[in-house]
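Message: I would value a second opinion on how I read folds in token form. Give me a protein, with the fold worked out from its sequence. Write it directly below this note and I will take it from there.
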Amino acid sequence: MTSSATIKLQRRQRRQARVRGSIRGTTARPRLAVFRSLKHIYAQVIDDSHGRTLASAGTMDKAIRGEVARGGNVKAAAAIGKIIAARALEKGIVQVAFDRGPYRFHGRVKALAAAAREGGLKF
């Protein structure tokens, strides 16, 4: 017998596999992956061909903690989007493939994507 928590985890993993099956990060166009928890949000620019994280930002970073009071809201997600775009542009990355993971494209995920676009990333 499986618990409801196990079933939720399996559904989340299936959604994530479905999204990741069509998105691959290359050297020319790395993947912008988003992880969202209840209290924080994180973003990484990943080159899957070499298995390397090229840039990252999250609400736990010391530089960001002063800007946002709470990490689990749309304002914090927008701040992370701007910062990840700036860090990616520093490394010469302009084009990315957006990986929303198992999350719907609304709320915090959408705010992060919009801020990254405003910051100069193209996807």
The chain has one domain: 4-118. The mean pLDDT is 92. The longest helix spans residues 4-22. The domain at 4-118 is CATH 3.30.420.100 (Nucleotidyltransferase; domain 5).
